[in-house]
Design goal:
- By secondary structure, this protein is mainly alpha-helical.
- 66% of the residues lie in helices and 0% in strands.
- The chain contains four helices and no strands.
- The protein has helices at 2-14, 19-35, 45-60, 67-72.
- Helix 1 (2-14) crosses helix 3 (45-60) and helix 2 crosses helix 3 (45-60).
- The chain starts with a helix and ends in a 7-residue tail after the last helix.
- The mean pLDDT is 91.
């Protein structure tokens, strides 16, 4: 979780997202991790992080980055 949050902080900074977007993404991640009943493989954490950051940006930002921009920030580990 810590590595994921560091990465999300870096991506948020790279795209000049609002601080509220970053915190909302963390809330989404924590809520998902709390409610998910099955084991989450480590390789899926970045996918969860990108999805939550994208949802938070859609909610908080006036002009949110395209999902493809977030996918590029994963170094092609998420398509």
């Amino acid at each position: 979780r810590l590595m994921l949050l560091d990465w999300i902080c870096q991506v948020s900074s790279d795209y000049c997202l609002k601080r509220q977007t970053f915190h909302l993404a963390i809330e989404y991640i924590d809520h998902y991790l709390e409610t998910c009943l099955e084991h989450i493989p480590t390789r899926d954490f970045q996918l969860i992080g990108v999805t939550c950051l994208h949802m938070a940006a859609k909610y908080e930002e006036i002009y949110p980055p395209h999902i493809g921009a977030f996918a590029e920030s994963t170094n092609d580990s998420v398509t």
